[in-house]
Structure formats: structure tokens, C-alpha cells
Specification:
With about 240 residues, the chain is α/β, with parallel strands linked by helices. The protein contains 10 helices and 10 strands. An 8-stranded mixed beta sheet has the order 5-6-2-7-1-8-9-10, with helices on both faces. This is ATPase-like, ParA/MinD.
Length: about 240
């Protein structure tokens, strides 16, 4: 494990949470943030205290999916930062500090912000935590996965398209090399085509979410999320992870 005391702080906080998932994608455009947000929100509607952490510092979008403006989000300092509460959902995004202003971070800066956030947010009482990450697998994400191994399970989101499948195979190899055994696959904008691929790669296939022509019907407000016509697919996935 890293000698950085912030990682020890992160481990201490995450150990309190029975289930922690880091949601990854090998490339952009596969709907990873929508999957992260809707899985966490629907989990909270099952009366399960659930957390959603947005670690995409450059282009955070989970607040848009939930239907909140940056200025509406606030955090109370209590043994760290207490997340913003949306019913049973505890939510944290750096957007509340940047206020939609561009945040250009590189290399060590990204690593430092990620370590800081993981160590200071207080998820007390949360039973499930979903961590939304930037597309791809950066050194910073890989460092977090390696140092939090055993506490965090990766959920890889992919579409059934050929280019996406090929890049997922590379991502899986990187995760395996980092010592990650259990990798969960969620198929987005598909109909079950990736089940065979998941079996061949030794992945846990959690299910699929069908393509929705107008995804705006399902995002942008709490009422839209609650009345989304593909909600049942997310709820089915929650029973398998």
C-alpha cells in the first residue's frame, strides 16, 4: 500500500462500507456515469443507505443526471465532509467547489485531489458506495484500485460494439495484472450480447440495459429518474452485484 497517510484514511473510511464499487469504462460514450448514478439512486430507493462519489474532476456529470445545480450542493464538516443527502442517497462531487468552472489537473495534481477526496468524505452509515470515474484507466485510478484492493470491486460498463469490446479486453488484462480477481460487467445499450464475452473473460455478468432513443426522459430530475421506463433493468442488476 502507498505510504501516503491519505490512503490509510481512505481505507479506514471505506472499511465501514459493506459494498464499494468503482465504476469504470475503457472508453468514453458508453454511458458509464448514467449507469453509476442510476444504480446508486435506485439502490437508495430500496431503503438501502447508498453513496455516490463522482471522481471525474475534469468533466463531472452525475449532478446533471440527478438534476442538481452546483450551487445547490453543500457539505457539512463533521469528522470530514458529510455528503449531500438526497433521501437515502449520500452524494459528493467536486463540482460544488468548482461551480462549473474548468478544472485542469495533470498527473500528480489529479493523484493528490483523488487521495484527498477519498480520505476526507465521511460515508458513515452508507451500506453501498458507487464511485464514478473518468473514462479509461489512468495511473491515478489504477493506483487507487491497487491500494484499495479487497475493499473495492470494479464494475466495467461497456456497449456491445466491437471497438468497445476490444478495449474492455485490454482493461480487464490491466485489472488482472493489478491483482483484481472479481470484475463485474454491465452491458449498456444492448440486449444481452455481452454474456458470452463475459463468460470467456471470466467476468461476472450483471445484466444489460437496453438502448433508449431519448435518454433525456430518464435523467435531469429526481422525478424523471423515478419514472424511467428502464428502471427495472437497473434494479435487476442491483440484485446480482
Amino acid at each position: 500500500m502507498s505510504s501516503d497517510p491519505r490512503f490509510h484514511g481512505a481505507v479506514k473510511r471505506l472499511k465501514q462500507i459493506p459494498k464499494v464499487y468503482m465504476v469504470l469504462s475503457s472508453k468514453g460514450g458508453v454511458g458509464k456515469s448514467i449507469v453509476s448514478t442510476l444504480l446508486s439512486y435506485y439502490s437508495s430507493l430500496k431503503n438501502t443507505p447508498t453513496g455516490l462519489l463522482d471522481l471525474d474532476f475534469t468533466n463531472p456529470s452525475t449532478h446533471i443526471i440527478l438534476g442538481f445545480r452546483p450551487e445547490e450542493l453543500s457539505y457539512r464538516e463533521e469528522k470530514g465532509l458529510e455528503p449531500f443527502k438526497i433521501g437515502k442517497l449520500s452524494y459528493f462531487s467536486i463540482i460544488s467547489f468548482t461551480k462549473d468552472n474548468p478544472l485542469v489537473l495533470k498527473g500528480e495534481e489529479v493523484r493528490n485531489v483523488m487521495r484527498e477526496v477519498l480520505s476526507i468524505v465521511n460515508w458513515v452509515g452508507v451500506q453501498k458506495l458507487f464511485i464514478d470515474t473518468p473514462p479509461g484507466l489512468s495511473d491515478e485510478q489504477l493506483e487507487a484500485i491497487y491500494n484499495l484492493k479487497g475493499l473495492v470491486k470494479p464494475i466495467v460498463v461497456s456497449t456491445p460494439h466491437k471497438l468497445s469490446i476490444q478495449s474492455v479486453s485490454r482493461l480487464v488484462r490491466i485489472l488482472r495484472d493489478a491483482g483484481v480477481d472479481e470484475i463485474i460487467l454491465v452491458e449498456n445499450m444492448g440486449s444481452g450480447e455481452l454474456k458470452t464475452f463475459a463468460d470467456s473473460e471470466g467476468l461476472k455478468y450483471a445484466g444489460y440495459i437496453p438502448f433508449v432513443e431519448n435518454i433525456e426522459e430518464c435523467i435531469g430530475s429526481i422525478s424523471k429518474l423515478e419514472n424511467c421506463r428502464i428502471r427495472e433493468y437497473f434494479e435487476a442488476i442491483l440484485t446480482k452485484i
